[in-house]
Amino acid sequence: MKVTFLGTNGWYDTPDGNTPSVFVETDDAYAIFDAGFGFYKAKSLVRPGKRVLLFISHFHLDHIIGLHTLPLFKFPQGIDIYLPRGGEKALRAFLRKPFTTPPLFLPTKIRFHEILKDTKLPVSFERARLRHSVPCYGFRLTADGAAVAYCTDTGLCNNLKILARSADLLITECAMSPGDKTPNLFHITPETAAHVAREAGAKRLALFHFDPGKYPTIGCRKEAETAARRIFPDTIAANDGTTIIL
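Above: the chain's sequence. Below: its structure in token form.
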């Protein structure tokens, strides 16, 4: 399994990063978590022959704005987009004129799937609702003998720990600064992420979804990495282009 970070900022793009998108290549499929503006980079990574599965965590614009770049893609296998219940209506409201190109006119066929209890998925997959200001879901993908947990936009909650359990790689948000004591129900610090990784028995931790207001430079991300490593040594602060092989 190969994990590539296409976008590692939260909220908005800066010279240090695009908004969130994480690309996972397995033996049998490409799984993409969220479609922030970093999503456009998937164009150079997808090859014919494997299914392309896009999982949307929630509908804040920084997690779907990259879908505006879909006209760049010409994937013969199309893209299967997996959404929460009721999500197809919400996403179609965005994927239409005058906002962007409607699916009917895209060169790549788009197929929508709302995830229900009996939904059959082509990969071993779990999801759980996280603690955020709007309904937001974390994901856990198991393939090629490894498990990756993707948990963006969340406060500390039990489902974050459940998805992280014994994961080979826990990818979690880091919107708050190291040592920040400001009450925040919907985002976490690097120290909180590290405590979750340690308590859940994860093997590695990757921090991403950095609030660009709190992390204006790559150096600030390194400070978050250092803070987390004091608690959970096998931590990295991911940047756009960071690749991890599992």
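The domain at 2-245 is CATH 3.60.15.10 (Metallo-beta-lactamase; Chain A).
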